[in-house]
Write a structure and sequence with these properties.
With 265 residues, the protein is an alpha/beta fold. 44% of the residues lie in helices and 15% in strands. It has a single domain, classed as Vaccinia Virus protein VP39 (Rossmann fold). The protein contains nine helices and seven strands, in the order H-H-H-H-E-H-E-H-E-H-E-H-E-H-E-E. Helix 8 links the parallel strand 4 and strand 5. Helix 3 packs antiparallel against helix 5 and helix 8 packs across helix 9. The longest helix is centred in the first third of the chain and has 35 residues. The radius of gyration is 22 Å and the shape is globular. Bound molecules: S-adenosylmethionine (SAM).
Length: 265
């Protein structure tokens, strides 16, 4: 009578109970995360489409998290707002602070695309993180979040090209992999998608780097010896600093001013 033996096995009911308890705990924690996300979505919607920098930054800092020096990112925010980009691509979303700022600085019909290697859980596009990120869109803006995507993979670049459907990027923000080669690779892979006259910005270019930003500082030294750039390094902390490059007139625009290779030396 094997069947009745199995039922009398003392481990069987306790394993079952344990599984049920685990399931209830996992569901409760997911429900909590959804409840938190829905609260955040409501607060996102209270930040006006034409919010000032101070209003948008205050929300990003208090509700999302942002890894920026306030004065430096204000400089970039105002430049982006003046340009009113219709296609924005951010590499390195993290908690979404800067991406949120672009939603308030871009055109009312902008397509905002973000790439990040971070995974956002088993529910993909329906995860709490995605619900909040998607809610950044105002008016007829559209948000595409590419989470769990390595910007350096060709498959990711192809997905971006498909999302763009032939439209050029007006503003590219590079704040992902902070190694010297990683920043060069992001620039080399995605700058050809940026329109002539478009803006490319890099974060963490400060010549007084933190340990984690040394690669970007080295990249920036090499980059500025080849391209015309502008920068703001305003804080006293190590790291931070924003550099910008305006793509020049034609598509060779992303070629260096002087000849030389593009970072692979
Ligand atoms: C410094 S954080 C971005 C901060 C954000 N822009 C802000 O200021 O609020 C860098 C992000 O880049 C992501 N990242 C690093 N390497 C990457 C890669 N190769 N592809 C995609 N994302 C990457 C990390 O997961 C991390 O979330």
């Amino acid at each position: 009578m094997t069947g009745s033996n199995t039922n009398r096995n003392p481990r069987y009911p306790s394993d079952f109970k344990l599984n049920v308890i685990n399931l209830i705990q996992a569901s409760t924690s997911y429900l909590d995360r959804y409840a938190t996300a829905l609260g955040q979505v409501q607060r996102v919607r209270m930040v006006a489409p034409n919010a000032t920098f101070a209003e948008a930054y205050a929300f990003a800092e208090a509700d999302l998290g942002i890894l920026q020096n306030r004065e430096e990112i204000q400089w970039l925010f105002e430049l982006v707002r003046a340009a009113r980009p219709r296609v924005v691509l951010e590499i390195g979303l993290d908690l979404g602070g800067t991406f949120f700022l672009w939603s308030r600085a871009a055109a009312s019909d902008a397509h905002l695309i973000a790439i990040d290697a971070r995974e956002t859980g088993r529910f993909g596009d329906w995860s709490p993180f995605h619900l909040v990120g998607k809610s950044f869109a105002v008016d007829s803006q559209r948000v595409s979040l590419m989470m769990g995507a390595d910007s350096h993979s060709e498959a990711t670049r192809e997905r971006v090209a498909t999302l763009l459907g032939g439209r050029p990027v007006d503003f590219l923000f590079i704040d992902g992999d902070h190694s010297r080669d990683g920043v060069w690779q992001d620039f080399n892979m995605y700058s050809p998608l940026v329109t002539p006259g478009g803006l490319i910005a890099f974060h963490d270019i400060s010549p007084n780097p933190a340990e984690s930003t040394q690669g970007v500082a080295r990249f920036w030294r090499e980059f500025t010896s080849k391209y015309e750039t502008e920068e703001r390094v305003l804080g006293h902390d190590q790291g931070y600093g924003i550099g910008i490059y305006r793509v020049r007139g034609s598509h060779s625009s992303t070629s260096p001013i002087s000849s030389g290779n593009r970072g692979d030396d």
